[in-house]
Structure prediction request, 714 residues.
Amino acid sequence: MMSSSVNHSSYGMKVAYKLHLQEATFAIAGHHAGLPDFGNRIDTENSSTLVGRMKRPNPDASHWKDEITLPEVKPLASLGSHFSDMMRIRMHESALVDADRLDAEFFVNGKVERDESPFLEQLLQDLGPDRLSSSIMPPPQELREISKALAGQLREHQSIRIMALAEIMERRAESFLSAKASTSLNEKRNAILRDCLTHGADPEWKPGLYTLTAPTGGGKTDSSLTFALEHAKTHHMDRVIYVVPYTSIIDQTVKEFESLLGPDSVLPHYADAAFQLKEENELTANDLHRSFAAENWNMPVIVTTAVQFFESLFANKASKLRKIHNIANSVVIFDEAQTLPLPQLKPCVQAIAELVTNYHVTAVLCTATQPALQDLFAQALRRPTLAIPEIAPLSEKERSEFRRNRIVDDGHKDMDEMAAAVEGRNQVLCVVNTRKEAQYISGVVRKHGFEDGTFCLTTLQCAYDRERLLRQIRDRLAQGESCRVVSTSLIEAGVDVDFPEAYREQTGLDSILQTAGRCNREGRRDADASLVHVFSTDEGQVSFLKQNMLAFDLVREGNADLASSKAIHEYFTRLFGMRGDESLDQRQILKAHERGISGCRMPFAQIAERFKLIETPTVPVYIPVNEEASALCAQLADPRCYTRGLFRRLGRYAVNVWPKQLDRLKEAGKISALAEHGTKSDDDAFILLDMGMYDSATGLQVDEDQLPQNGLLY
Prediction:
């Protein structure tokens, strides 16, 4: 066994390098500090790159190195591209980091009760407690046999877990399919569910890449989970990973899965998950179970965000990489696949293709508006004639039977005209492109005497207020009370509401169809009378949406049915064509994998720094909107109170503002920097001092007519 005083990562790295074991070299070098850049020949020993570390003097390992017997190993062959080789290195790093942490936790720091504990106990007995206590290393062949036997037991355990959950979904599906459908809509949902159940159980549907294009209201969440668990059971896969684009809808997905499968089988892994908001001394037994599982994703069903999933795959830090080896041999559902950010689209597609090709992953692109990704996947998979099978194929006639509203063109409107249109409806949804428009329209409606039942939803409100207002909105809709909602696109992110009529400012076709999914959602009204009005304004002509708007205009001219698969495919094809290849990999992530960065080969650390799924140069302002928020903000006065749990709980009370808005709030003396409360940086976050600048009904006031002028416009 190694002495703790020996720099074992540096020594082990050099041994592995001499044996030409590229993956082991990187994994050993980075299993504490994270994967370094490989670097280049001119790096000196002062460089943090792998080359630089190789040039440093050898650590003294004379008192233990003769005890080591190296097994006979062969270098792994290249997978054919630098991207593949770098992903394989990350996977090796992940496996080593997880094993190292579990080993230290169980054998050194005292046993911790987690799902791995019985297997670690078995490993202890197989290796021999007396031998280990005497620091005697078993021979390599014995280690190999013990590990193979234990891996088999672990795989059997995981298969049993998946089988039990699949049977729950089977029984649920059969109960729906055997009963007479109460409505024609339920009959159509059952048809999709039947396809998911049948194809999931079919051994001919092998692990690979699939689409599930279920129209809004088609029950895609339930059906996709049924397919995933059935497919995992059929092909002896370890887990299901459900990737959700927005934190605003992840809670409802988690609650649905927990009600079906039980909380012990579902891991919600995102910053605002309940167990993540607690301090260590507040954690229950179930919280601890989830906290441990979040480190390495050892749960049968994971619900996480697209940011967490993809940024982990491109990470270099050991803590973020630790879980990714457990993505292998999994079914991964990408919910609302059309929301993958275009500036990072090609790296995301390449990562999915890599998982499918080399790690026995089944990936399902699940959405009502399927993006035209076939060509990008064909390029990533190096298969010119790629066909992506659809799990629940629908004819255009069958798709049209899901139609519950009609999209109409209302032409150009100014803001006051839109306010008048909203005033004239008892229940209506109006979705606009900017937060400023939403605040203005809802403000005019409220001033005209419609304050009761009029709601504004934007990210200028903290999450606490948005959640509270959404509960009120759902209650008023259910009771038939007046409910006029003016919102930005955040309400399109899977928020489950049902309005008789809707307005949508012109944008991309996918967003317009998402708004349409909130109009007559349950099909209780006549489709032709449930109108979705598309309008344009001067205020909503924002630069980042110009290409989406142009693509929509071109598609609208030649398609009478904008919800048809033909129109959707044409829209995405045009949009991707306008953007061009370079804009689909804005930070040149793929080029960095294949060619390096500025002469630095395999730049793991630099790629991790570059790859941000959603790049928003915004800064949080904490709003002391209630007693809890005020108490949390008060704790910021004492740096000794700073914990991960504190800042995560504060996240519910944060409003993210742009730099120009932040400057104006600073100049007006409306906010104070955390630096004034003891933190090192004055750019990390701020506290709102003047609560007159915040209204729970409309959010933070940041426009030029609400703050002193300083020449900066937003």
User: Anything to note?
Assistant: Confidence is low (pLDDT under 50) at residues 677-682, 704-714. The longest helix spans residues 140-178.
